[in-house]
Specification:
YjzC, YjzC family protein
Amino acid sequence: MGERTEYEEGDKAPNPGIYTEVGEARSFHTQVNNPKQIKMEKGDTFPETSNKNRKWKKAEKARVH
């Protein structure tokens, strides 16, 4: 089983890196304008997103359409 790729507020970062907000839906029609980006270390706790329908995802894995 692979590692999760989307995280919610309160989850722990599995690896260090830059994480960005992404829309909840996996549709390419859903884009987040001016998403927050945060630098995390392994074990840091994810903060609250801009709204409840967003999640955190590692920036290098976040798809931009």
